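Below is how a single chain appears once it has passed through the pipeline. First comes the sequence as given, then the structure the pipeline wrote out for it. We keep one example in the README because the format questions we get most often are answered faster by looking than by reading.
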Amino acid sequence: GGEGPVMLRTCRVLYSQAGPSAGGWQPLNFDGGAFHLKGTGELARALLVLRLCAWPPLVTHGLALQAWSQRLLGSRISGALLRASVYGQFVAGETAEEVRGCVRQLQTLGLRPLLAVPTEEEPDSAGGWEAGRKGLCSLQASRGPLALPPTAPLQKELTSWVTRPGASLELSPERLAEAMDSGRNLQVSCLHAEQNRHLQAALRRLHRVAQHARAQDVRLLVDAEYTSLNPALSLLVAALAARWNGPGEGGPWVWNTYQAYLKDTHERLGRDAEAAHRAGLAFGVKLVRGAYLDKERAVAQLQGTEDPTQPDYEATNRSYSRCLELMLNQVSCHGPMCHLMVASHNEESVRQATKRMWELGIPLDGPVCFGQLLGMCDHVSLALGQAGYAVYKSIPYGSLEEVIPYLIRRAQENRSVLQGARREQDLLSQELRRRLLGGGPRLRH
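Resulting structure:
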């Protein structure tokens, strides 16, 4: 704990003097060179699956097509086809042993696991947190972080209470954290008895998951949601952070996710970083572009409210870039007390992050890491991993029945990412052509 800042300053001096080369910054190459680490069969499957996923009708009608193939081919053949393709490409496996195998495979490639809980629950269900607890058992061998779905109960109601004037004192993160820790009943005056019970149960569940994670040395990254649920979610994450990100804990153990496609993200990020710093708490951020753009716009139009999203993709890129800059400066100032995951498939964002890390003297394997989905963006992940950066692959796990609806939902949310994976497809087909015509994998340089 105590030596952290001093050590970071020393690293900074050493690192800036011994930059990647005397001539200054050397950008990473995302040209598929790192594909030499993968077998030809794996590359062929990746190309086939990414091509399929970039085909809009398949993504739109995925669930109907799955049901239709089960009826037509029977569940055994249909399941075998899915396992050999989409499931095999994007999912770690079903049993703890399969998950551990996937983790070992990632580690040989210089990558790390971020276990993603694949739930498709209704917002009022407790299943996500229970699945999170089960997921922690699979993680014990990997010591990687865990991405939790925000499916805590009462989020809609909680958001409307949080945004009411006067609610801030009763529903402060500190008060919720105290109730979590003591197990004492929290009575909130604007809630009736049933809602108070519901809130109490949610806090207990959250506390159990966080306790279990902390005992296993596993960090919890809580995913973001729709803007109608985010205020409640942020309050619950702030309560967890108040309890688990304290100065003696060696954290941050609880991280929140910030979506750059929302107009207020940069301002909120600055405010939250400042508040954590003032309270002496460690601050963990997963920075994403965001996945619910079309739905957010449709809801705003339907309700006649202001559209909370950036006007276009370029504006979202600018927002991501500004948030990234803000967080890298925070890391450079506050060192071990501030951590960032650059969760992006965008090559420009990744380049910006690596260049600024170099300029600010942030060590490669320090408080900044990168995150991408399993089975996607490997030309970026592998290049980062080989260069010595900390790279996490988000790995969903579970049975076909549990995971396929989750994957289809993610694919629908990430249409632009899947359709933008054209470059990865080109690099894969180039490498496959080279192997088939030129023979053998490319030699390591």
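The radius of gyration is 22 Å.

See the next section for the split statistics.
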